[in-house]
Amino acid sequence: APHLVSDIPFVVPNYDWWEAPFYGIGLRLYDVLAGRHGFGASRHLSREETLAELPTLETEGLRGGILYYDGQFDDARLAICLARTAADLGATLVNYAPVRAILRSEGLARGVRIADLEGGDEIDVEAKVVVNATGIWSDSVRQLDDPDASPMMRPSQGVHVVLPRRFLPGDGAIMVPHTDDGRVLFAIPWHDRVVVGTTDTPVNGPSLEPRAQDEEIEFLLSHAARYLTEDPGPDDVSSVFAGIRPLVGDPENADSAAISRDHTLHISDSCLVTIAGGKWTTVRKMAQDTVDQAALLGQLEERPCVTHELNLHGYHSDAQRYGELAPYGADAVELRDLSLALPAGAERLHEALPYIEAEVIWAARMEMARTVEDVLARRTRALLLDAAASLEAAPRVASLLMEELGRDPEWAVQQVAAYTELAQGYRISSSSR
Questions:
Q1: How far apart are CA 241 and CA 197, in angstroms?
Q2: Phi-psi region of 40 (alpha: psi -120 to 50; beta: other; left: phi over 0)
Q3: 3-state secondary structure of 269
Q4: How far apart are CA 125 and CA 113, in angstroms?
Q5: Which one of 85, 97, 221, 308 has the minimum C-beta count within 10 Å?
Q6: What is the torsional sign of CA 324, 325, 330, 334?
Q7: Cα angle value 19/20/22 (rounded, 5°)
Q8: Which residue has the higher pLDDT, 47 or 181?
Q9: For residues 356-362, average pLDDT
Q10: What is the rounded distance in angstroms from the CA atom of residue 338 to the CA atom of residue 360?
Q11: pLDDT band for position 184 (50/70/90)?
């Protein structure tokens, strides 16, 4: 997926004498493990080289740094591309259809009952095998299958704050492997902003809208101030967002930071297959392991796995030629044509956001977007980049969707109201200022 993934240099700044040899050895091992799949070899930097990579890095006490490379991607676009790849290969995709029950036949999971949230009906879908790949909601689905199923998820909340690009104007990112309380801190250029993260706070359970706690925001801003020449404050934050990691772990162990990020396959007595844990970077391996197991349980024809050579939907080896439409890859040409065909298709939704009106229509026609939130939070990253700007863009998005989806004006009003309530949670509260 070269249209979505690129390499980015990370610098581990060294302020103590022991950091260079300690982290240097670790990153050499990182290079060895990456092998031919690595983005580039790590190396030590002098003080001057470190500042050339990170011009706004705090200089007091700086000895040098260590440079290494990692991959960066747009998670919203990758999620959509994975779904569209599945559709290209024959999968039937359904949106806004939560599972209400696991259907059984002779004691085995043989389908699901889903609710059509738009039409109001419930639909039974039969299957040879049912796979539960629902992330932080894995236990909820397992308990539909078996109310006595013991929880296996150990959700942990990560919070990020988004700052203007001036705080980190270069191409490189900052990575601090060990803060005072043992957490990792990073500041990364992303969509012409800077994302600072991340916290690791155990939470009691899943939430559709996790909220950042004031102390988490304070932790990120105060620690970022240690490494940046300009200290960021609450007024500099354009958005704050929280996500929940679907960790699998021992309920007796309270330290979520120590839990492995590896994935786990679980098969219930009814043969419900649950894939839990894992992370974006291992998604293909997770899928391969899950499908292999499901095929075995369903007594399906044995076939070789194709994921090693499979390009994702939109694959393009030089998508950067399409500028801000690059994340759409090969679809960028068709999207550009759409922008020219629409009356104001090439106009930006907001001057502070990189998105154009045609992307709203595209999201509705090609990517199953049904709401303002879908467009501004899950097809684009407007909400995460600038919550206030996304709020100002919401009425226009609602109007475009109303026409495209055949809704009435009252629907558009309700959409803006719902999005306004949502987006307030992505702005710094007065108590954090």
A1: 10
A2: left
A3: coil
A4: 6
A5: 308
A6: negative
A7: 65
A8: 47
A9: 98
A10: 11
A11: confident
